Amino acid sequence: MDEYSEIIKEHPYLILINDNPVSWHGFLLINNNKLKMEIKLIVPNYPSMKNSILRFGKNIYHMHNTDFSTKSMELLHSAISVPTFLRQLQRLMDTCIKKKKDYLNNNLQVFNDNLLDELTGVLKDSDVAVLGNNDLTAIKLTYKNISIVLEQTSLIHNPWTVVSSDLPTFSVWPSLDKCVPSLVEAAKTLKARTDILQDVWDDLKFIDEYCWVIDPINPKPSHMHRRININSSLSLLLTMNPFDSTAIQDMKLLGTDNKWDDDLTIIENLQTLLNIDELPKPPIDRGQHDNVLIGENDCCICFCLELDDGEIPEVICNNSKCHKNFHAACLYKWLEMGARNHVAFDVLYGKCPACKEAISCPIVKNKKNNN
Predict the structure, then answer these.
(1) Which segments constitute the Fanconi anemia complex subunit FancL WD-repeat containing domain (predicted)?
(2) Rg value, the chain, Cα
(3) What's the whole-model pTM score?
(4) Rounded distance, CA 83 to CA 38, Å?
């Protein structure tokens, strides 16, 4: 029997599609003829297998996570004839399919047991709502109307991946994928981050209610910015910082390109954007004007020169470009609210409310003032 007849007899779904170079295309039957694996075998030096090329169809995914790719290439390079190679390749496919099925069956039971344990753990927390699809391959966790959706993976040590989240991302926070080795940990992370962001979301909700927000059009919890319309040619871009609610938020004035006239001076363009006739000018002598917002020697926090107990500003910022004055009591209360400020030797250290450079305030004296 010649090789062609032998191949046709053993592999009826393979067809000789080309004589030069000799090329076979079709399917090998494996797994007790239940599965067809598409292949294309090109043998340029037929009947020698030297420099032969082997290609697979899309259903090669059945062989993923096995050593099939390496071993099939080893068979191809050592083959002595086409019929022998096809028989060896067919046996290799059968072996790899069986190993993969055994692996999945053994680990599926372990994973299902772990899943039940995880769901039990999450359901103990009444604050977190849990929803899942029919086969529990996707789980949705919700806390205070903020949700994350997780899907199962085939990895035993990292069985979940986040596919959707209402939470914003920040560089100081680890990626959510790195925080969810289990559903219980996912629920803890969701609650912790939601509680941190709640005050900021309340502020943004207030802005949405009382301001003309032009971006985002439909705000979501993950949006930490708001672009507020000021007039037809000007808007304010506000970006919230959830980690320091006492700090001045990041604000930028944005103008429209079509309102900037190259024939006008910068001052004239600014007046047009701001819709004012004249930009404010500094007073000749601040001491002679009673209607200024803050005097030269006034406290930069309470805007007063003298407190009810007669105290006058005695703390001055060391920054030469700032030199703002503060009552010791006012500065102490301000610094006391900062989460990152620290105490050493009865002195409270933090940042100047005006220029953000380092500033300090003695504690003992201010405790007396506060009592």
Answers:
(1) 7-94
(2) 36
(3) 0.46
(4) 16
Hey, what amino acid is at 186? Answer: A
Residues 211 and 178 in one domain: no
In a domain, 123, yes or no: no
Please list the alpha-helical segments (H only) found in the chain. 3-10, 68-78, 82-123, 183-210, 266-274, 328-336, 363-370
User: Which residues span the domain enclosing 240?
Assistant: 206-274
Same domain, 98 and 12: yes
Taking the C-alpha atoms of residue 42 and residue 52, their distance in angstroms, rounded to an integer, is 6
One domain for residues 261 and 313? no
Residue 351 CB partners (closer than 8 Å, separation 6+): 338, 341, 357, 358, 359
Return the HEC string of 57-105.
Answer: CHHHHHHCCCCHHHHHHHHHHHCCCHHHHHHHHHHHHHHHHHHHHHHHH
- CA nearest 273: which of 282, 265, 284, 281? 265
Residues 357, 161: Cα–Cα separation, whole Å: 42
pLDDT in tens, 275-306: 778 877 765 554 444 455 567 788 888 888 88
Residue 99 phi, psi (nearest 5): -60, -40
Alpha-carbon span 96 to 92, nearest angstrom: 6
Distance CA 114, CA 49 (A): 49
pLDDT tens figures, 241-261: 888 756 667 888 887 656 677
DSSP label at residue 237: E
Question: End-to-end alpha-carbon separation of the chain, Å?
Answer: 108
Residue owning tokens 């949006």: 223
53 and 31 in contact (C-beta within 8 Å)?
no
- Domain count for the chain: 4
Provide the token pair at 329: 């009591």
Strand partners, 55: 40
Query: For residue 219, what is the domain's CATH number?
Result: 3.10.110.20
What is the per-residue pLDDT across 96-106, written as a single tens digit (0 to 9) for each? 888 776 655 55
